[in-house]
Structure formats: C-alpha cells, structure tokens
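dude i think i finally got it to work??
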Amino acid sequence: MGNLDRRNFLKLSASTLVGITLGGTALHALAQEKVKADDPLAVAMKYVDKSTVAGANCANCMQVQGKDGDALRGCNIFPGKLVSAEGWCAAWVKKA
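look at this
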C-alpha cells in the first residue's frame, strides 16, 4: 500500500508541475495585447493588419517571433505586443 501512495503522490506532483508550466505560458500569452491601429508606434511604422504588399507579411518577416501557423505573434518592432501574421509594417525584411 505504501508504494501505491508514493506512486499517486508522484503522479500528482508531475501533473501539478505540468499544469503550472502550461498555465504560466498561457498567462504570458494573454498578457500581450494585439497592436492597435492608433498605437503611435504602429502609425509611425505604417502597420496594417492585412498586408497589401505582394509576398510580404509579418509571417515571412525576420522581425516576427513565435511559431509558424500562429495568427498572432510577437514582433521585435512592437515589444510586448502581438501582430497579425497577415499584417505588414515599414520595418518588414524578408526572413532568410
């Protein structure tokens, strides 16, 4: 019976650790807000949610962060904010 209690304790500890880790990641993502069109930096950088420049968008810019496929991603130009993968700004540089 002692081993069963120990086993359950280890399972609970592992799942709690995973929950805390994933929860922290989710809270971090929620803490970031999407860049607003009237944000002074967005205006200065001519940021738009939907690119009108053929073949150029935030998803294929070297400044964007995060993983491919995410609709909203971090960007080096707008620290602490999220940009649309379909967006564009004047700082766009093709990802190598």
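Confidence is low (pLDDT under 50) at residues 24-28.
im so relieved honestly
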